[in-house]
């Protein structure tokens, strides 16, 4: 029997969750690059900007993860709707 992962199909209602995880991956990449620029940068201005970019990426990552948790909760049977 073929599962969802091997068939490449997405169950109904999961498109938003897949999209959120794609957004999470992009933010995580931005975060890692900013951390590396801050850690290994040689120009003081670039290091300062990297620190700012890192803080922004962390805030965005927190927002995306919160949205993912909410989307996963909504998919549970009997989940409350506010």
Report on the structure:
The protein has three helices and no strands. With 82 residues, the chain is mainly α. The relative contact order is 0.13.
Topology:
Elements: H1 4-7, H2 15-40, H3 44-75
Structure, briefly:
The protein has 82 residues and is mainly α. It has helices at 4-7, 15-40, 44-75. The protein contains 3 helices and no strands.
The profile of the biggest β sheet is: none
Portion in beta strands: under 5%
Class by helix and strand content?
mainly alpha
The helix tally amounts to: 3
The domain tally reads 1
Q: How many runs of DSSP E, i.e. beta strands?
A: 0
SSE pattern, N- to C-terminal: HHH
Chain-averaged pLDDT: 87
**What low-confidence regions span 5 or more consecutive residues with pLDDT below 50?**
none
Gross morphology: elongated
Question: Over all CA atoms, what is the radius of gyration?
Answer: 18 Å
* Share of helix, binned: over 70%
Distance between the termini: 38 Å
Task: Describe the structure using short key phrases.
mainly alpha; 82 residues; 0% strand; single chain
